[in-house]
Amino acid sequence: MKEIKEIESYADLKFTNVTYGSLANSKTFNDESFFQSSFRGFSIQGLKKGSIWEFSLLQKGFRDELLPEIYEVDIKKTIKEKIKDYLNKIYYSQETDCYNNPQLWCLISIIQNKADISWTELK
Questions:
Q1: Rounded to whole angstroms, how far apart are CA atoms 108 and 2?
Q2: What are the backbone dihedrals phi and psi of residue 99, each rounded to the nearest 5 degrees, phi first?
Q3: What percent of the chain stands above pLDDT 90?
Q4: What does the CA dihedral 20, 50, 81, 43 come to, rounded to 10 degrees?
Q5: Are 55 and 46 in contact (CB under 8 A)?
Q6: Are strands 114-122 and 103-111 parallel, antiparallel or unpaired?
Q7: What's the Cα-to-Cα distance from 107 to each of 53, 69, 118, rounded to whole Å?
């Protein structure tokens, strides 16, 4: 919850709906594996109501068993910046940009002790 409030403050918005993913079937960080950890950290979905955008957040990751502390600060900083940039892009979009139901998905992977963030954007 602390991270979500930080993101809202950083991006200057309030999510209309925040939900959390299930802990069932979650993996844990495995130092011995090539793919040490891989999980969808969150997804954001936008919906335009009149002239106002509303955004919902589904937060699934960022648990200690998936994201060791050594990676946490850099990854969360990158994510905050990406969310802010993405939401600004949507807020200031034109009708010709064709945003109907924008979504941003974040996949976080730790591969051979290197963090990687993959992004998927949908209009």
A1: 19
A2: -85, 115
A3: 26
A4: 30
A5: yes
A6: antiparallel
A7: 24, 17, 5
